[in-house]
Amino acid sequence: MKSPIRFSTLLQAFFTQRLMQQKQVSSHTIESYRDTFRLLLKFIQKRRHKQPASLLFEDIDAPLICAFLDDLQKQRGISARSRNVRLAAIRSFFHYAAFEVPSRSEQIQRVLAIPSKRYTRTQVGFLTRPEVDALLAAPDARTWSGRRDHALLLTAVQTGMRLSEMTGLKRQDMTFGTGAHVQVVGKGRKTRCTPLTEQTRAILEDWLQEPAKAGSEIVFPNARGARLSADGVSYILGKQIETARKTCPVLLKKRVTFHQLRH
Predict the structure, then answer these.
(1) 26: number of Cβ within 10 Å
(2) In what order do the strands lie in the sheet containing 174-175?
(3) Which residues are catalytic?
(4) 50-60 pLDDT, tens per residue?
(5) pTM above 0.70, yes or no
């Protein structure tokens, strides 16, 4: 009789063999899938009181996945679109599992049958110039985190970079002097160079002269020198928006997301 297959073993093979070696997906996809399974494991630990290392593949069934997705929407307030992104990562894993664990085909097919949620595509909002000015004036320039937040928000507004591109930005990606620009690898692994305005260049040069936390090469690190998480950036934006609303009351009527800074 074959021993039960551990979920952790299959998940590790999915990332290292399927995604990285066979499909050679981008680092952005890896990070998105990683975040999905990190949230799933935390949910299982809370709901079923099981540690990740003790989970068996058979524990991850369709009712559990549905409960996880519902919890994301109710507790974390994610949109239907974000829910579908998480479901897509899980489906990709179960498509892989279908070949690795054919004996669990019924369980796998039930998970793959979970439907995506339909949603109405709404027009992306944007900030006006006075609103942007209020946001950029919100960070406290007397503190390290305030100077980082100001440089981060200014760069986001001026360059229109995606969240993952901003958090992964490294010092070697910045070029100053004549033709100052920032270089990132975005969707589809396409390299993109975005010119920097004189104001943004000056702010970034000043910011990068500050001692790096723990010798980090990340341009906008957290307090430990590590890369900011999506939740970390969301917290920063929310904090600075609250401050900006004191001088720009019209922001009280807006729900501002990082994506809106691109518009």
Answers:
(1) 17
(2) 174-175, 181-185, 191-195
(3) 162, 187, 259, 262
(4) 899 899 999 99
(5) no
